[in-house]
Amino acid sequence: MEIIRLQYDSRIEEEGTVLCIGFFDGLHLAHRRLAEEAMAIARAKGLAAGFMTFTTHVLSFIKNEPFYFLTPIEAKIAYAEAAGFAYFYLLEVDWGLVGQDPEVFISRFLSKVDTVVVGFDFSFGVRGLGTPDLLRKQKEFSTVILPEMRYREWKIGSTGIRRFLKEGDLVTANQLLGTPYAIRGRVVAGKGRGKILGYPTINLDYDGYLLPKSGVYATRIDIDGIQYGAMTNVGNNPTFSEQTVTLEAHVFGYDGIAYDKTVTVTFLAFVRDEIRFPDKEQLITQMAADRIAVLKQLEKEKIE
Question: Which domain holds residue 80?
Answer without folding.
Answer: 2-149
